Amino acid sequence: MLRFFAVRLLRALITIALVVTFAFIVLRVSGDPALEIMSVDAPPEAIAAFRKAWGLDAPLWIQYARYLLAILHGDLGQSMRDGREAVVVVAERIPATLELTVPALLFSLAVGIPAGVYAALQRNSRTDRAVMVAAIAGFTVPSFVFGLLLVLVFSIRLGWLPSGGIGGLGHCILPIVTLGVGGAAVLARFARGAMLEVLGQPYIRAGSARGLPWRRVIVSHALPNAAIPTLTIVGFMVGNLIAGAVLVENVFSWPGLGRLLVVSVVSRDLAVVQCILLLIAAVMIGANVTVDLLYGVLDPRIRTAPLCAGAGRC
Amino acid sequence: MAELQMTRRQTIAGALASGLLAAMASRAWAAQAGTHPRLTIGMSGFPPAVEPALFNHTATRRVVPQIFDTLIAFDHGKGMALKPALAERWERLDGGALRLSLRKGVTFHDGSPFTAHDVAFSFSPDHLLGPGRSGRSIAMQTLDRVERVEVVDPYTIVIRAKGNDALLEQRLAAWASEIVGKRAFEAAGSWDKWSAAPVGTGPYRLVSQNLDVNIVLAPHDAYWGGKPPFGAIEYRIIPELAARVNGLLAGELDIITDVPPDQFGDIAARPELEIAGGAVQNVRYLAIDQTAPIFKDPRLRRALSVAIDRKLFVEALWENRVPVPNGFQLSSFGSGYIEDFPALAYDPDLARQLIKDAGYKGEPITYRLLNNYYTNQVSGAQAMVEMWRTAGLNVEIQMMENFSQIQRKPVNAIYDSSSTAIFLDHLGHAWREFGPNGTLPKQVGIWSNEEYFHLGARLQDVVDVEERRKIIRRMLTIIDRDDPPCVVLHASGQFYGKRRDVPWIPGQMLDLNFGPSNQAFARS
Fold first, then answer.
1. Which residues of B touch A165 (CB under 8 A)?
2. ipTM above 0.90, yes or no
3. Which of A34, A3, A2 is nearest to A268 (CA)?
């Protein structure tokens, strides 16, 4: 088991190193933070002074070496736009993003899984078709379009809810629904598919043949088995919590990590971008590891299977 | 399309009526929400710092006038004439020196009195050159000619320029010449702490600034220019246009910035809302890489200009709300405005002739384009490409993400730019772009003209009006006809969506003014 985690961790570290290097090169080569932050209208002397102050006048490989060295010392750098530590700038946005994404995820789980399971149990009925039409609509309509539609109805027409910004509970509702509907739609389709596959398995028929009540067959045998593929999607959604908020945060002027990422990429505020990428990577890895552990909990065969079965490769 | 023609009497009647409406709106606003209502503005960007010497970002300039004052100010309601501000009066001692009498009884937001020492500090290298005197500031754009400030007594100063300077008064009204509190600056101890809580004498003081979220101001009740009209101002940062418009339509915002013409209809259709704004002291132009082989011949550069039907362009894309200047100048330039300089012509026949004379054989001309960094940029580019095609020019659009990519060498292309007249003269405008230290010759390195450079250097020392006009005329001719570094398109427009009952009239700069000197309150 220890080796299992060591291999996973090593892979994760290599992935993070590649992401960080790729982002460094792309952001540095495709834009000059001095021009973006000082403005194109600033005098050339001021732009040159900015480059010097932030070490942007050094060759790219020296900048990269300095950056890596700083990371190894636990220094993720300062925001060129704000002057503060990048970690501080990023950390202060985390609560706002969680304020949206966690309720949105819960919304997706609470709506998507029951809808998918119910649709599977009512296969080929009108209810099934209605749920699937809604699910397809839910994930084919882009979140920014859906968000603007909600604003048009509930903010502009009815005046019930604020159109954007951060504030009280009212400010959260539209962005949470916008973010949650897409996830619920995806989960409904996956839950239905997984459930249908499980319902066709011999052990379900065997359970029914033994005279077990249908409800018990579903709850004790079908749902736990259908949960495994669904859990994969949930893990992916948890890992995607931060990245997925980019569009919605921009539509609703929500000052979270997604919006910070967009602004920082545009202004080539590298330290902040890298900090967010590291955070996204950490959440992704954390979610994947948690999902792996939960597989074991849900399915004893996974828990007891040898790590390096078959060809002997892990 | 019907042309709107007004007699002088109708114009005066209209002006009186709009003044009366503004006054009524002012009173209605006050009656509705008390004498100090809160103003909420939806703004597209967050300022990198609210410090006048460090940045000239549009977002910075929208906040700075509330917090700081200059010694002399531009009167936006009177053709940008100069008017007293922190200096009650001034007089010329000679071609390069100005004595100013400072206003007494003015206090900074921290309660300290405003004196000549604050002025001396504000114009000192410790402030103007930014952190550690590194030069990481935009102040030298306007104040490079200021040599020193002499404190005569606590309320009298003499400002001396490097040589003669006909524009010294204007420099003191321009960007970066705002007066900061010396005591507060020193008490802050570092530039970071100072930038986080700057202190000025303006009508509002900074309460808080939250990165990418908002900036909140409160009135400076001891303001020397009268009681600030708003009880609080909140600039909400809303980068997405749709979100800003939605906020205005939903009644959550009082004013929104950066409204493009295609949104005018939706906003103006609401009885409680209106579009405000118009042309500002800024010119939109296309920069041309003179060093590219294809543009070596100035006739081809000129052909790009005369092939554009600017009247149609402005009608179709700007609802005729922005003017086309005659040359790289603005009519507000006072004695430096060459009013009889030829208008920018649309002459397709001349374009074809110039193209033929230049020996152009249809080689592709690259147009490096940003995705609507400027309002109407992409649709404008597409329209111009068709106009050029009609004249025989083969221009191909190449989309780019930012100015670093646009200005990457070798440029070998044309690209969009704009130029703000930071003070109202050729030296505060075209010279900033095309002078030896300007954007095109120095920063990008795509144009130079020794005669132009020489004339500009002379212009800086000339005070005589006629002599200045002669030099400016020649400089305009060089950049318009003889060796064009650019194609002038039109004056830039800045438009705002606002509630009708908010008493505020935008000025002629990118700056916003919500103080008692705004025309809406001056009228009422």
1. 236, 238, 247, 252
2. no
3. A34
